Amino acid sequence: MKKNNAFTMVEMLGVVAILGIILLIAVPSLINSLKSSERKAYEDFIKDLYLAAESYVQHNYEEFYPNQGEGRNYVTLEELINEGYLNGNLVNPNTDEPIRNEASRINLTKEENGVINYDYVYMEGE
């Protein structure tokens, strides 16, 4: 009698079923990790913008908050790039689209306790 060294159909179905279970467990976890990393990339991008704006405002404080009267309450990304606080060619990590620097700015609000808050704004159509 000849011995057959091939896999049976039942063994093959068992392997496919096990691989399917592994994929059911691994794929959702992988997708969540990718989404989390994309969200983190955008948060880091915004944080970099805020840090650049904060540094720029500290170096040019009188322009924004003069001793008397009202100062300017925003910084454009174009200013931050021209002054060397940011690299040019900014790209939105969520969309991979280039950011129009002239249409983006960071609004500044100064609270009564002296804390300055920064808010990134992309102005469509400007």
Tags for this model:
126 residues; alpha+beta; 3 helices; 3 strands
Task: Give a description of the structure.
With 126 residues, this protein is an alpha+beta fold. It has a domain at 43-122. The protein contains three helices and three strands, in the order ααβαββ. It has helices at 9-59, 61-64, 77-82, and strands at residues 74-76, 104-110, 116-122.
Low-confidence stretches: none
Number of strands: 3
The major pleated sheet works out as: 3 strands, antiparallel
Strand order of the largest sheet: 1-2-3
Short description:
The chain is an alpha+beta fold. The protein has 3 helices and 3 strands, in the order H-H-E-H-E-E.
Lay out the secondary structure.
Elements: H1 9-59, H2 61-64, E1 74-76, H3 77-82, E2 104-110, E3 116-122
Antiparallel strand pairs: 1-2, 2-3
